[in-house]
Structures are given as structure tokens and as C-alpha cells.
Amino acid sequence: MKTIKLTLLFCLITTLAFCNISVKEKNALLAICNATNGENWTVSWNTNTPVSTWNGVTVEQDKVVALDLSFNNLVGTLPIEIGDLVNLRTLNLFRNKITGFIPNSIGNLIQLQELNIAFNSLEGNLPNSIGNLNKLVKLELFMNRLEGNIPCTISGLINLEKLEMFNNDFHGSIPAEIGSLTKLKEISLSSNRLSGKIPSTFKNLVLLEKLSLFDNSLFGVVPSILGDLVNLEELILSDNLFYGTIPTELSNLTKLKVLMLNNNDLKGDFAALAKSIPTMLQFEYINLSETNNSVLVDTD
Q1: What is residue 287's predicted lDDT score, i.e. its pLDDT?
Q2: 74 vs 5, higher pLDDT
Q3: Residues in CB range of 260: below 8 A, 6 or more apart
Q4: 34 and 67 Cβ atoms separated by less than 8 Å
Q5: Residue 284 phi, psi (nearest 5)
Q6: How far, in Å, CA of 5 to CA of 158, rounded?
Q7: Nearest-5° angle of CA 213, CA 178, CA 274?
Q8: Residue 25 within a domain
Q9: N or C: which end of the chain has fewer CB within 10 A?
């Protein structure tokens, strides 16, 4: 009788250890493993052990709340089942070899606060469902091959503070809806194929500290409303098609450390502008017609 009780106790402990998350979540993890050549990951999973012991998986109260497989040699695609990890707060797949599309099911991860799939080889459009992630604070998709328009549904990311999508192949205009994301502190959309003007709605981004739009095909005058973004520390607009006189309102940016305007067709008293901003460390303004590549203004 004692032996039977001990056996039952052992079975109960084993069951609790191995089944502490839902079958759906475990199957989603296994689908990711199978779709990205899990046997050849830098640190692979022993799927015969509890999920909570798997590398990069964080389990709290029987729910998978974080998945960090960065720098882990994932090779393959993201399966649709990734959307079944509905309790995730962090998803980090940075610096792998993931190809294919971002599945539309990514929009199911409504608890997500940080999403980093940067430095892979993802392609295709950013799904409209990205706008469902209204708790997202950081969105990092840089260094991929994503294309198409930046979806207007991005307006749903009402808690977003960091938007990094540089070095992709996005085209079309910058959505005016980004201007409604008033918690943004960093925007980096550089090295894409974006065109059109800087949206006037950017005047609402008063917490913005970094705006990097270089190496696109943006045109028009540099809008004076940028002078309202008094928390800016970096403003990088180089290698576009901006023209006209640089707005004097930029002198309001008293926290600005880096201002890069080179390789446009801009005019104005650049040296005076640099001198008017006491925090300035780097100011590049050489135009397309000039022979030098850059200039550093000493503001001492």
C-alpha cells in the first residue's frame, strides 16, 4: 500500500512538473522549435524536461510570459502558432536567420510589451494586426527585408515609446497616425524607401528624444513644427530630398546634441544655428552640391 502511495505521489509531482502550462502554449513553443530548426540552435531545448527549464522561456503562474531566443541560430520561418502564446509580455528573436513573413497571428499577443525581431531576413508586409498590440512599449524590426507601406493601424500602439524599423524596404509616406503615439521617445525609420513629407502630426510627439529619418526619399521643406519637440536630442534628416531654408525654430531645441542635415538642398545660416544650441555636439549640413562629406561644428 505504501509503495502504491509513493508511486501515485511521484506521478502527481511528475504531472505537475511537466504540465504546468497549457497544451496550446506548449504546442506553440514546439511549433517554433520545429519551424526554426531547433535541433541546430546554439542552445537547444530538451523537450523531455519541464517547459520552465527550456532556454529563453519564462513561465509565471503556469503561463509563458517571455520568450528570448536572441543570438540562437534560429533558421526557418515563424509559424502561425506563435499567436497562441497569448500571455507573452516579451518576445525577443533578435539576430537570427529567420525568413518568410511575420504571421498575422502576431496580433493575438495583446499582452506584449516588447517585440524584437530585428536583424533577421523577414520579408513581406508588416501585418495590419500589429495595431492590436496596445500594450507594446518597444517595437524593434530593424535590419530585415520588410516592405510595403507602414500600416496605418500602427495608431493602435498607444503605449509605444520606441519604434525602430530602419534598414528595411518600406515605401510610401510616413503614416500621419504615428503622430498620435504621444508616448514615443524614439523613432528610427532610416534606410528605407519612404517618400512624401514629414507629417504635421509629428508636432504632437513632445516626448520625442530621437528622430532618425536619413537615407530615404523624403521631400519638402523641413517643417518648423520640429522646433516644438523640445526634448529632441538627435535629429537626423540626412540623405533625403529636403529643400528650402532651414527653419529658425530649430534653435528652440535646447537639448539637441546631434543635428544631421547633409545631402539635401537646404539653405540658411547653419553656423549660427549650431551656436544657438548650447548642447550641440555634432552638426552636419553639407549639401549635395558641396565637395566635402561632412562638417563638425565646434560650439565652444
Answers
A1: 77
A2: 74
A3: 214, 235, 236, 237, 238, 282, 283, 284, 285
A4: no
A5: -115, 130
A6: 54
A7: 40
A8: yes
A9: C
Q: Is residue 239 part of a domain?
A: no
> DSSP 3-state assignment of 136?
coil
> How many folded domains does the chain comprise?
1
Q: Is residue 220 a part of any domain in this protein? A: no
| pLDDT, tens digit (0-9, with 9 covering 90-100), for 88-135 | 999 999 999 999 999 999 999 999 999 999 999 999 999 999 999 999
Which of 74, 77, 55 minimizes the C-alpha distance to 66?
55
Q: In the prediction, which pLDDT does 288 show? A: 60
β-pairing, 241-245 vs 145-148, is unpaired
With cell 497616425, the residue in question is 177
**Residue 94 is assigned to a structural domain of this protein:** yes
* Cβ contact 146:124 at 8 Å: yes
pLDDT confidence tier of residue 289, bands split at 50, 70 and 90: low
β-partners of residue 290 are none
Which position has the grid cell 523577414? Answer: 122
Which one, of 171, 210, 177, lies nearest residue 194 by Cα?
Answer: 171
**pLDDT at position 290:** 55
How many CA atoms within 13 Å lie on the side-chain side of 196? 13
- Express as a percent the part of the chain with pLDDT over 90: 87
The CATH number of residue 26's host domain is 3.80.10.10
**pTM given for the model:** 0.90
Range of the domain at 101: 1-148
Pair 223, 246: CB distance under 8 Å: no
